[in-house]
From TrEMBL:
Name of this protein: Hydrogenase expression/formation protein HypE
Leader sequence residues: none
Gene symbol of the encoding locus: hypE
Coiled coil: none
Recorded family membership: Belongs to the HypE family.
Amino acid sequence: MSRPQQVQLSHGGGGREMNDFIHNLFFRRFENPLLKAEDAATFTLNGPVAMTTDSFTVEPLFFAGGNIGSLAIAGTINDLAMVAAQPKYLTCSFILEEGFPFSDLERIVDTMAEEIVPTGAQIVCGDTKVVPKGCADKVFINTTGIGEIVLPNVSASQLQPTDVLLVSRDIGRHGACVLAARESLRLESEIESDCAALWPIVNTLLNKGITPRAMRDATRGGLSAVLNEWCQSSNVQMRLDEQAIPVDTAVKGVCELFGFEPYDLANEGTFILAVPAQQAQDALSVLQVFQAQAAIIGEVTQGSPAKPILCSPWGSKRYLDFPVGELLPRIC
């Protein structure tokens, strides 16, 4: 069968075209012993598990540092990693618009196949739907992940005063990257998304004996949303050193241009963790092996109201509030 130029309705019709489409595109790239032409995947799990699901939609589909496919894999892997669960199995479902270029779909699926390899997880089942032109915007992806919990009780409800807060790299890259792409901004240096699967970093932390109280990838709402949610969950305050929070110069420039704060912008490969004070330097050393910009940014404290407090280098203080409104729709 010749390679199609565009996705057609027959590719979701359940007949020969769909069978060829699924086997030649998805099975060939996601091949593993558990991926079969059955209605369900079967496998064995040992001990407690974590499960997550997410849907992905971004405009543009392709951006510096990734595409909707890398978002789909990294997003689901990271949700498992943030509760200290080793990713094991993923499902993957596509909603495709009739007429979507087949070459673009191949690029997306190729990226997904590459992104999942370092995590050790496998895509074990999926689904494809093709809708008439105009009934969807190009492509939407849904993924569900299952992982085996390595360290129990990693949760925002476990924070304690004197715990130290760290960030795994500079913040705001994904939101700034997508915004720059939409507005066709010409920057001195291109902003690449931080999109990446975080399990290899988390696994190294756990293997080094680090026992995080909480971890969270700072996606929509960015650093601000995560820290406010944590304060509410554990009824604590936080003191943040504004100068210690790493922000790339190009991201600062985009924020100044549009009136945003980098703390509110989305990330797709950056996470925040809280650890006991005695583990802070060891945790930082591990993070800096992967990203030199990793930093200690503050500590958990007692106080009311339960909000993070941003402390400037000049001695002023302000609450770092939840982002308000929808800064950037369709970013992940």
